[in-house]
Amino acid sequence: MEKRKPLHWEQLEDDFKKERSIVLFLGAGIDFEAPHGVDYSWDALLNHLLSYAVMQLLPADDMGKQMADEMSSSAKKLIKEMLCEVDENNKEVLKKRLFGLEEQIDFDFRFPRDVKATIVKQTLGNEVYVKLIQDFLYGRMEKKEIEEAGKNYVDYLNNKTAIKPSFFSLFSIADLILRNRNIRAVVTQNYDQFLCDAILFLKNYPDYKSLVKEVREITPNTICDWKGKIDFTYNHLNIYHVHGFIPRYDDIQAPKDNKIVLSMDEFYEDSRNVYSWQIASQLHFLSQYTCLFCGLSLDDYTNQRLLHYVKGKHHGNLYYITAGYDDEKKKIKDNIKNRFHEKNGLTVLYDEQGYGHIYRMLGELKYGKQ
Description:
Blueprint: H1 9-17, E1 22-26, H2 42-57, H3 60-63, H4 67-82, H5 88-101, H6 113-124, H7 126-138, H8 143-157, H9 168-179, E2 183-188, H10 194-204, H11 206-211, E3 219-223, E4 236-241, H12 264-272, H13 277-288, E5 290-294, H14 301-310, E6 318-323, H15 328-343, E7 347-351, H16 355-363
Parallel strand pairs: 1-2, 1-5, 2-4, 3-4, 5-6, 6-7
Helix pairs in contact: 2-6, 6-7, 8-10, 9-10, 9-16, 13-14
């Protein structure tokens, strides 16, 4: 079967050939298909957080089982342990308990995500709340596993394997950045540093450097507060974590002004402060640059509000990467959503052949007349 390009793809290729300055807007979808089947979606994160909050809120008799009291005590003890130093011998045991606990709970709260997050924050408190997110992100994903995924990605590019590697979307984005110097900045709603890990690995991996003629010698620069040192020189790539940044356990801690945006009150405060660095930087990029949205559902009302503000006033194209599969019912829903996005000023790049195909095409985009 012949591989087809999505509608408007030539327009995006033309923007790269004409060396348009491009900013990437990224969401949780770029962490899709992580190693070992780890789910990094927002829903998975909230279920992870809620499992601990529920244990604090529900007494044993409400659950109707004697084991509930044991689980509740286990959760409380585990949370206390997380705030203390854990020696190396107990670290692996702690991780297994941490990620096994939520699997014992079966619940379905019909609340929006920000309400669920608010329940977690109010129940567990700020310190535990952020610590749990950190463990969700990095408790099952060490740097060596990302590096292994990177090696598999390069083998896939070199046709050494036909199996699509883990973190394919993540490494396709890193590949896109390293091949094209017209990508000036990244705006991400993710808390993690996986993209930074992927860029640094590919940049220094000999097999990748032998495959790509010209690899950008760039250093990712994390921006997560208004005091962040922004560097627009060609050897730096500013990555704006507009919803906050949570580093790995052993890495340098995020600044004190770093604010995590997930719960209801955090979204309200973020929306009210129209002069915040998060809002100002996004509006600047959306109005002045060609932008490419990847891994985002655009259901978030903050995204919709910002797109509304720049509608008809932006100087570059606003591209939205999305994909579907051979499912007629889903195609109908996708068409309705895509028309909505087009009416709001986005150029939709919809690929019926799936996300794997469109992210592979992203990695092949070329800057200038290469």
